[in-house]
Amino acid sequence: MMARVLLTCGEPAGIGPELAPLALASGVDTVWMGDPRHLPQGTAWTEVQSPSDPVAPGHLPVLRHGFAGPATPGTPDPAHAADVIGVIARAVDLAMSGEVSAITTAPISKQALKEGAGFAFPGHTEYLAHLAGDVPVAMMLASTTVTPPCRVVPATIHIPLQDVPAALTADALEEAIRLTHAGLRRDFGLTSPRIAVAGLNPHAGEGGTMGRQDGDMIAPLVARLRTEGLNVIGPLPADTMFHPPARATYDAAVCAYHDQALIPIKTLDFAGGVNVTLGLPFIRTSPDHGTAFDIAGRGLADPSSTIAALRLAQDMAKARG
After folding, report:
1. Per-10-residue mean pLDDT for the chain, 321 residues long?
2. Which bin fits 277, alpha (ψ -120 to 50), beta or left (φ > 0)?
3. 24: which DSSP letter?
4. CA dihedral for 116, 121, 127, 133, sign (positive or negative)
5. Which pLDDT belongs to residue 122?
6. The model's pTM
7. CA atoms within 13 A on the CB side of 138
8. How many angstroms separate the CA atoms of 306 and 289, rounded?
């Protein structure tokens, strides 16, 4: 039998804990790690000592990780920061040892972790890459409810738009393309993945009249990778890449910057989008939303993205074998 998927608690003052029992609707064999005091009242849960321990049907298996105290929905407590970080580290240890088949991470508050524990990483992804040995990684957002699928990988992520042209080097773009190629093969079962590369400028530079990066850097890189056997095309005008006939021609799009990638997928599949970290030696997915402090504890949280993240993690684990 496949090992369980581990769902981390995330920020306990956010919607992560209340999504945990709702995630049982995914049908994925899941174990939750966190402090059971943070689960919604009435949750059917059973503490386990090992991720594989059996529990009664309908019960949430819980790997206990004691926190400094109870959580107040909507109000993060700096005293919880070290334990939020500790849960992530424990989850990685279990994934690296093969005791769980994948990790699905509930949202964290980077501000709360920085204020409470001096968290030095830009976010979840960078911390996971560090725990895995400082491996190169890329962020993929993958749809789960639209056809053809929409999968996007931004080559630059959380930087100001004015800094993108300098950050989008040939090396950075090549790394994103290679990580995408490897991830599609290993985790999505595609033997010859088709990758489309978006241009940086409007109309992919339009022959240099709207910027030279597309013709001077992106096009030669794509041509070189094609000579190596990678099925990659571009640069393509980003404004015509995401309607259904266009998406049918590729398996993933590598984009120049954050919003170029995330606007189309959040428009097409807001509730079903899943964040996947490419390049890790273990599988990591997460729902494509934040802590939602404004609705935490009010019973309004939508589990769709968490359910989609768990199901995708399970599918990726099957693809890896």
Report:
1. 94 96 94 97 96 95 96 95 97 97 97 94 92 96 96 94 96 98 97 97 92 96 97 97 98 97 96 96 95 95 95 96 83
2. beta
3. G
4. negative
5. 85
6. 0.94
7. 31
8. 9
10: left (phi over 0), alpha (psi -120 to 50) or beta: left
Beta bridge partners of 303: none
Is 119:11 a contact under the CB 8 Å cutoff? no
Distances, alpha carbon 178 to alpha carbons 35, 128, 196, in Å = 39, 19, 12
Tokens standing for 293?
């402090």
pLDDT of residue 158: 85
Position 123 scores a pLDDT of 86
Q: Name the class of domain 1-135+281-321.
A: alpha beta
Nearest to 195 by CA among 243, 140, 157: 140
E strands of the chain, at which residues?
A: 5-8, 30-34, 45-47, 60-64, 102-104, 138-142, 151-154, 194-198, 231-236, 252-255, 274-278, 284-287
The whole-number pLDDT of residue 1 equals: 75
Do β-strands 274-278 and 45-47 pair in parallel, antiparallel, or remain unpaired? Answer: unpaired
**186: number of Cβ within 10 Å:** 15
Architecture field, domain 136-279: 3-Layer(aba) Sandwich (3.40)
Would you list the domain boundaries of the chain?
A: 1-135+281-321, 136-279
